[in-house]
Amino acid sequence: MVSGVLGTEEQCQQPGELEPVQRKSTAAIVADQLRAAIMYGSLPPGSQLGEAELAARLGVSRGPLREAMQRLVAEGLLRSEPHRGLFVMDLHTEDVADIYVARLAVERAACEQIVRYHRVEAVAELTAAQSRMVAAAGKGDAIELADADQEFHETLVRVSGSARLQRMAQTLLVEKRMCLTALQDKYHADVQALVDEHKGLVDAIESGDEALLLSRLAEHMNDALDRLNGSMAE
């Protein structure tokens, strides 16, 4: 009985014990680069991905590139057309509405977990993220503000502690950013309102008022969708 307990303890990681270094595979690094290229518009919606050209630009063989592209197909950022190849997904008005339905569901679940279990950590990290939004707004840098906005929502989902919510949020946030990039000449957000809305989310978390937080989150999502729809209609 005693030896069984000792055996279990010996299998546990001991403080200070060296562990293998976790390193991303080439395919994972390539997927990150393709995801960023889609998000920032270097690979715009509807564009076709040529294997030879991309492999040369990235300096990788076709094996890791194909694996990376299949990851993005699974995420819904690329579509495969028989006998034609892979294309970046197009986003239409109905897709944008669906993105925000899904975002609200994911971030609502994250907020519920935060208020119940991770409030202190969330307030600290989201306050820092919101401060970066304030700094970007002060400089009038639209791209930096969009980056800070994205970081805020990535942080919101991450501090919920749910790896599955993070996976779902990643693709939704890239799709949202694709919309902003495509509409950058038409999309004009009320910068102060945007900053204030995020501050309101942090304040609601700090107060521990779950109903208030969920109400503010829904209002924030609806306002963002209205702004995007207005820009798409122009």
UniProtKB/TrEMBL annotation:
The keyword Transcription applies. Keywords: DNA-binding, Transcription, Transcription regulation. Gene3D superfamilies: GntR ligand-binding domain-like, Winged helix-like DNA-binding domain superfamily/Winged helix DNA-binding domain. InterPro entries: GntR_C, TF_FadR/GntR_C, Tscrpt_reg_HTH_GntR, WH-like_DNA-bd_sf, WH_DNA-bd_sf. Pfam families: FCD, GntR. Residues 1-20 are annotated as: Disordered. Residues 24-91 form the HTH gntR-type domain. One of its GO terms (molecular function) is DNA binding. This is DNA-binding GntR family transcriptional regulator. It comes from Saccharopolyspora dendranthemae.
